[in-house]
Amino acid sequence: MKKARILLLTAMLPLAAVLSCTKPQPLELQHRTLKSDDYYAKLREYKKSDHSICYLWFADYGVPTSPAYRFSAIPDSVDIVSLWGGIPKKGSLDYDEMYEMRRLKGTRLVTVTIIRIKYFFKSLEITAYMDAYNAAYQPAYDAAIAAGKTAEEAATIAEQKADEAGIEAGNADVLAHRKKNPDGTYPEWCQKLGDHLLDEMYEYDLDGIDLDYEPAGDMLTGDRMTLFVEYLGQFIGCGPNAKDPSKLLIIDHFNTGPPPATEPYVNYKVRQLYSNQGGAISDAAFSSSYPVSKQIFAENIGDLWKTGGKMEEFAAFQHSSGQRKGGFGAFHGQRDYNTVDSGSDNLVPYGHMRRAIQLQNPAGAYPPAAE
Fold first, then answer.
1. How far is the CA of 172 from the CAs of 33, 76, 139, 169, in angstroms?
2. Domain boundaries, the chain
């Protein structure tokens, strides 16, 4: 037995010597294409040109190990990225890659916020809300204590009742202040919400604001929405008196479109034309209150990542008037990074989106040499 062990160890020594001298070597599983300064310069010029754009709601970032969730992997020809996953933390990899993408590729970055005023009554300390909240809290707390609730339970009940009272008062305030004040200033709710969005945009040096307009009974609709967009239009967007027209003002929506009077201030109107919810592209899908060149149609890639839905149809469609449409877009477009259907989509990441870009703005055979 001892002799057999000695022989086995002797046989293993050469193998161990070889393994100990072998250094780990990285595997290049996906080749990175290096692009010249001239390529990026031309790409940035293309982004500035008059063309139908590609609009991407991007989210799920924060996973550095997968390019599917990295700003650096977004196709070069995407024009605008709406930060559906929020603004990355300063100093993070996502934050740095986001700005590097803009610097090299000219891709513009916009914040996105669901515009329902009731969501902001408390955080912005709207006076009507706060007065009603404060008036309702203590009586509700005392009543709960008298009913035998613990202090913690009473606080929860009081918070709920005070918030309900505050929202009711805030809604009434918005309805009562749907026009400019007699001195020409805007109502408190309008100024505070507008300034909040503008401050966020400028703090992070972003390129504009995307207003997700889905009122669902909220007071920020109709003439109040027009007033709010008019307020923002003093500062950004394409209105005649915008102080900073380099910043974009965008409205996105599902079925209920923004009031026609918002159009002069808005660079793009993005319709959530999700095919899995009955959406289909045609002349009838265009709003008559906005120019064709301002209208973008987006597919729900978050749900339809396996097939790309009708994104390519949206991209290829041309209005019968012959006018250039605003473009096409993708909600949760990062999920197009990996596709499972057949054909050229499996050749490169973001297969459906790259093909859609080429269908909308042909630049040669697919896949293109330059994205």
1. 58, 47, 22, 5
2. 33-106+273-371
**Gap between the Cα atoms of 296 and 305, Å rounded:** 19
Residue 279's identity, in one-letter code, is G
DSSP states of 245-301:
TTSEEEEEESSSPPPGGGGGG-SEEEEE--GGGT---SGGGS-TTS-GGGEEEEEEH
| Percent composition of the chain: helix, strand, coil (DSSP 3-state, to 5) | 45, 10, 40
Packed helices 127-146 and 151-176: angle between N→C axes, nearest 10 degrees = 150
Q: Model pTM? A: 0.87
Among candidate residues 281, 327, 278, 329, the one with its CA nearest the CA of residue 302: 329
Show the low-confidence residues of the chain (pLDDT under 70). Answer: 1-22, 25-33, 342-347, 364-371
- Distance separating alpha carbons of residues 53 and 360, to the nearest angstrom: 8
> 184 — alpha (psi -120 to 50), left (phi > 0) or beta?
left
Q: How far apart (Å, rounded) are the C-alpha atoms in residues 234 and 239?
A: 7
Write the burial class of residue 54 (CB in 10 Å: 0-12 exposed, 13-18 middle, 19+ buried). Answer: buried
SS3 129: helix
Could you please report the per-residue DSSP string of 40-66?
Answer: HHHHHHHHHSS--EEEEEE-----TT-
